[in-house]
Specification:
Elements (H helix, E strand, L loop, with lengths): L10 E5 L6 H13 L3 E4 L8 H12 L3 E6 L18 H11 L4 E6 L15 H12 L4 E4 L2 H18 L8 H46 L1
Parallel strand pairs: 1-2, 1-3, 3-4, 4-5
Helix pairs in contact: 1-5
């Protein structure tokens, strides 16, 4: 019988800049779906801004794993007057996932891959490099060259992470009912067995009484 662990489905948060990585995100999303898990990301929230942060934060809180994809853009920077001003929304998501202890799987675009000029960071190059350095600190990262390559590496890394770390995940309601039903059935079977044994004892005792009564009557 399948175990409850195998029946678990996991929510995976996909974090990245958007315009330059639309195809990459779609490939990763489809890869996660092919594993029968649930990908979530900015497609659900619209443009990144402080008004959406509460929803994003709650979504990361409920996610089991966090997949970070980095190419050659740093992303939209949080303006002055807001918490975490000066860093990108992508980096803010990363910091929050790190703070909450959500397992992070990071995938960086190989530096040798040609990128369209409009997708190469110009204004915040130092911040991008510092962000990459922070991401590579304390964890292994994967380097990717094509979106297919990325999707394959995400699939392998996620599978390994799932087998190594226990996360809450989601369990089908009927799977939980089956477990409860089996436990209840086991308890009832045990009780029934006890009643059968007690009944056997009573039958033996009753037989002995009948024999004694017949012996007295014949005497």
């Amino acid at each position: 019988m399948k175990t409850v662990y195998m029946d678990k489905k996991y929510q995976v948060f996909i974090s990245s800049t958007y315009r330059d990585l639309i195809e990459a995100r779609a490939k990763v999303r489809d890869a996660i779906l092919s594993m029968y898990h649930f990908p979530v990301g900015m497609e659900l929230f619209g443009a990144a801004n402080e008004d959406q942060w509460q929803i994003i934060r709650e979504t990361i809180d409920s996610s089991d794993y966090y997949v970070l994809i980095i190419a050659q853009r740093y992303g939209s920077v949080i303006p002055e007057g807001h918490p975490d001003a000066g860093i990108s929304y992508t980096e803010k998501e990363f910091r929050y996932a790190l703070e909450k202890g959500v397992p992070i799987l990071a995938f960086l675009l190989d530096d040798d891959v040609a990128v369209k000029p409009e997708y190469v960071e110009k204004d915040n190059r130092d911040k991008l490099n510092a962000f990459k350095k922070a991401v590579k600190t304390g964890r292994l990262v994967e380097w990717w060259k094509t979106t297919d390559d990325l999707a394959q590496k995400v699939t392998v890394a996620l599978y390994k992470q799932i087998t190594r770390t226990k996360r809450p995940g989601w369990i089908r309601g009927d799977a939980v009912d089956v477990e409860k039903g089996l436990k209840s059935l086991s308890e009832r079977t045990e009780q029934n067995q006890k009643l059968v044994e007690e009944n056997k004892v009573l039958l033996v005792e009753n037989q002995k009484l009948k024999q004694k009564r017949n012996a007295v009557l014949s005497w």
